[in-house]
Amino acid sequence: MTRFYLPALLLAFSSFSALAADNQLSAEEQRNGWQLLFDGKDMSQWRNFKQQGLSKQWIIEDGAMKLNGKGGGDILTKAQYQNFDLKLDWKISEVGNSGIFILADETGQQIYSHAPEIQILDNERHPDNKLASHLSGSLYDLIASPAASHKKAGEWNQVRVLLEDNQLTIWQNGVQTVSVKIQSPQWQQLVAESKFANWPGFAAKSSGHIGLQDHGDVVWFKNLKIKELK
């Protein structure tokens, strides 16, 4: 005969109820000043790069923002952020490639002209998997993510990006992938040895938009939330 212990059941229920459902804030997150960037119903906080509207190729599917195929264009938040804590979940299609941008502006030709990118990739199949700093969770072409942070294409990944007084820390699936101070001597050396060495204005600004990349492949995002830091 199975016995149920009320205290244990109450504890389990309490732990479960403390977690927010997809695209919602928990009570603790609300108290701590978190804000949703996507509520699962509309993308009113987003627009295309250098445009006022949003392409019809960016759709909502099963509570996730989905780039439905090539031609949707890169998108960014309408608001800009300086010091922030950002969380989101992403899922990439097979042989897919995408990215998350921070400190994006619209003075360059492309969204990536000045914005550092957290890579999204099917690490197993996409041809841009030859360099470790091009794998998912990496600070693209600058700092490689550890293998322990990687998941297979088609699985949801959790990313956290913390930027405070130029100190950038990134986690993917609970594993720290990046810790660097932007514009520090270490940063300048990393940039000098990367493809961005001769890109004027790269990561030069202390604030900017959050961006999501159209690399021509289907990609999903959900649970996008941000907390501005004072």
What features would you describe in this structure?
The protein is mainly beta and 230 residues long. The chain has a single domain (30-228), classed as Sandwich (Jelly Rolls), CATH 2.60.120. It is built from 3 helices and 13 strands, in the order ααβββββββββββαββ. The strands form 2 sheets. Strands 1, 3, 4, 6, 9, 10, 11 and 13 form an 8-stranded antiparallel β-sheet that branches. It has a 5-stranded antiparallel β-sheet with strand order 2-5-12-7-8, with no helix packed on it.
Question: In percent, how much strand structure appears in the residues?
Answer: 25-35%
At CATH level 2, the architecture is: Sandwich
What is the fold-level CATH name, i.e. the topology? Jelly Rolls
CATH class: Mainly Beta
Number of helices: 3
Ranges where pLDDT stays below 50 over 5 or more residues in a row are 1-17
Summarize the helices and strands and which ones pair or pack.
Blueprint: H1 6-18, H2 27-31, E1 35-36, E2 46-48, E3 58-61, E4 64-67, E5 75-77, E6 84-92, E7 97-104, E8 117-121, E9 157-164, E10 167-172, E11 175-181, H3 185-192, E12 209-212, E13 219-228
Antiparallel strand pairs: 1-13, 2-5, 3-4, 4-13, 5-12, 6-9, 6-13, 7-8, 7-12, 9-10, 10-11
